[in-house]
Amino acid sequence: MSHFRPELRQRAEETVALYPERRSAMLPLLHLAQEQDGYLTDEGMIEVAELTGTTPAEVRGTAAFYDMFHLEPVGKYVVGVCTNIACLLAGGEELLAHASETLGCAVGATSADGLFTLEETECLADCNIAPCVQVNHRFVRTTTPDALDALVADLRDGKREDEIPPHGTLIRVKRSGGLRVSRQQIADERTRERAAREERTAKEGQ
Amino acid sequence: MAVLDAPKIVSLRAEFSDSHTLTRYLATGGYEGLRKALSMTPEAVAAEVDAASLLGRGGAGFPAGRKWSMLRKAPTSYLVINGDESEPATFKDHYLVERDPHQLVEGVTIAAYALQVNQAFIYLRGEFALGLERVQQALNEAYEHGALGQNIFGSNFSLDIVVHPGAGAYICGEETSLIEALEGKRGFPRIKPPFFPAAIGLYGEPTVVNNVETMSNLPWIVTHGGAAFAALGVGRSTGTRLFALSGRVNNPGMFELEMVKNTFRDLIFDPALGGGIPGDRKLKAFIPGGVSAPWFGPDELDLALGQDEVAAKASMLGSGSVVVFDEDTCAVRAAWRITKFFSRESCGQCTPCREGSGWLERIMFRLEHGGGRREDLDLLLDLCDNIAPGLGWPPQQTTICVLGSSIPSSIHSALTMFRDEFLAHVTNDGCTHG
Ligand SMILES: Cc1cc2nc3c(=O)[nH]c(=O)nc-3n(C[C@H](O)[C@H](O)[C@H](O)COP(=O)(O)O)c2cc1C
Ligand code: SF4
Ligand code: FES
């Protein structure tokens, strides 16, 4: 029995097929596991291990390296406030402290209603609109306390669900179809290209 | 006066709100470079890129043509695009993947053709949710349009591109770490040599890794010719570059400028660019190329925005990101935050990097927040010297990758330029800027 719901299981299998080696699908599959459960559950990681031909321990050990993977439950909305250099100069630390008050949770913690988790992030590559704020890895560009409060009110009222899906859902655009070039074709083309190249080089040498 | 008459090469579509769609792309010259490339031999395409003298835009500035030529003997197996963009204050690839994904896809396809590779991966940092969606959408459209997949535009060249999401780790921008992540492992940089994945890369096979902006230049280079690209800029620094300006400026943003023709003063103060510092406050210092780079003071404002020009002054243009500190900026606080970043992002494999970054961060923290000691100034220098012996530029490396050797840059700069400020922090038992 698959732990992933059928649609995610199918996407996971299609993803594995895109790589020359199954293990390469590790990060994309861990994102799918978070889409399934909101964070990485044991069941989710066991399924990723099965799909990538690794062990649950290897999956957990890999996941723990990456900041975006959560091994404990998080809120429906993970709010990240950047305090790195450009954002620091624009009041990032102050905005982070304000967010903590508005959301009612400490940095790194989840609000009592389970709706929000607050994180202090490193640079998010949006430094000209500082301080930078993301919700579930979507840029929301609320650079002032007032704008942040308005956004939080909207999220509480369930108003921005189209734009900001629940935590874990990262890529909503599905790939249309699998690989178009087969391994055999790649091998054949490589042989052909090598011969053609040698021929051209030989001609140049004349 | 700033020189602003160069053509826009990679940010050509910035004015359009639908710049990410295939319709807009095709209406603005899209996929013409690829059609032209496919009518040439792969070697001829590579020769144009060589003639363009296109320097890698990911930070190290290695010529793309030269990197590719290492593979002429052993055919390349994989092409991997680096879109990890996590060097603090860098935000150009963010623009390129969200706003012009087809340009990236076309560039990658041209490079793949020149290298005769049939599978490419675009690695994007996981925090780019919209960028990941836009690139996937562009790939879907490109397949549909015949610009990707079997027999591209009726030629006998075929290619698949897969977009691969990262998951939050600065170190995965280092190319061997990125390859580990792409193999489904922790992002630990590999030991060098081999110095280039061109020798042993993805799955141990020859692999070319290039940055998103590097690739985004290719459609223009093929369409207009390498010579036209090389005619822009000066010397080795050719073409244009996306400069990311942030910090204490009136008009922070991304500006595409011809290489070398403008100075840091133009970028920061010209009304058409940075527009100067809020409240007409004085400039205290600036970082010329990402937080790994040593800082410059006002004396270097007239330095040209070129790779060799900045290197000659013992810093680097790096990722092309400039951060401005005004007179109200606390140098200790700025250097502390940058050090905290390195300490959080060290992958932990090498002792000088793992232990050194944490130790430095704790000292900088107490100087900034109270509890700093006079001896800390010497201790900081001593620790920095342990990580990058001699504290010269480019730094001596004691670690597997250059994240480690970049750690001392900000502290060493701040201490050299603003030693009095450090002493005042000791006397005041914490920050003097309130
Ligand atoms: C710690 C570290 C982080 C890096 N981060 C990036 C990055 O985010 N994006 C990038 O393109 N290159 C990054 N690089 C440089 C890459 O290792 C590599 O040189 C580059 O992707 C090659 O592409 P280019 O020649 O087109 O510039 C980083 C290097 C180091 C040491
Ligand atoms: S220098 Fe730092 S980041 Fe680089 S491999 Fe060593 S420990 Fe990891
Ligand atoms: S420093 Fe905050 S987004 Fe770059």
Summarize the structure.
Chain A is α+β, with helices and mostly antiparallel strands and 206 residues long. Chain A is built from 8 helices and 4 strands; from the N terminus they run H-H-H-H-E-H-H-E-E-E-H-H. Chain A is 46% helix and 8% strand.
Summary keywords:
A: 206 residues, alpha+beta, Arc Repressor Mutant, subunit A, four-stranded mixed beta sheet, 4 strands, B: 434 residues, alpha/beta, Rossmann fold, Ubiquitin-like (UB roll), de novo design (two linked rop proteins), 3 domains, 19 helices, 10 strands, binds flavin mononucleotide
Question: Could you describe the 3D structure shown?
Answer:
- With about 210 residues, chain A is an alpha+beta fold.
- Chain A has two domains: about 5-70, Orthogonal Bundle (Arc Repressor Mutant, subunit A); about 75-155, Glutaredoxin, CATH 3.40.30.
- Chain A is about 45% helix and about 10% strand.
- Chain A is built from eight helices and four strands.
- Chain A has a four-stranded mixed β-sheet with strand order 2-1-3-4, with helices on one face.
- The longest helix of chain A is centred in the last third of the chain and has 23 residues, at about 185-205.
- Chain A is globular, with a radius of gyration of 22 Å.
- Chain A starts with 5 loop residues before the first helix and ends with a helix.
- The mean pLDDT of chain A is about 95.
- By secondary structure, chain B is α/β, with parallel strands linked by helices.
- Chain B folds into three domains: about 20-230, NADH-ubiquinone oxidoreductase 51kDa subunit (Rossmann fold, 3-Layer(aba) Sandwich), CATH 3.40.50.11540; about 235-325, Ubiquitin-like (UB roll) (Roll), CATH 3.10.20; about 330-425, NADH-ubiquinone oxidoreductase 51kDa subunit, iron-sulphur binding domain (de novo design (two linked rop proteins), Up-down Bundle), CATH 1.20.1440.
- Helices cover about 40% and strands about 10% of the residues of chain B.
- Chain B has 19 helices and ten strands.
- Chain B has helices at about 20-25, 30-40, 40-50, 65-70, 90-100, 100-115, 130-145, 175-180, 210-215, 220-225, 225-230, 265-270, 305-310, 330-345, 350-370, 375-385, 400-405, 410-415, 420-430, and strands at about 80-85, 120-125, 160-165, 205-210, 235, 235-240, 240-245, 255-260, 285, 320-325.
- In chain B, helix 7 (about 130-145) links the parallel strand 2 (about 120-125) and strand 3.
- The two termini of chain B are about 35 Å apart.
- The chains are: A alpha+beta (about 210), B alpha/beta (about 425).
- The interface between A and B is large, with 60 and 74 residues.
- The structure holds flavin mononucleotide (FMN), iron/sulfur cluster and FE2/S2 (inorganic) cluster.
- The site of flavin mononucleotide has 23 residues of chain B, from strand 4 and helix 17.
- Flavin mononucleotide binds near residues 56, 57, 86, 210 and 211 of chain B.
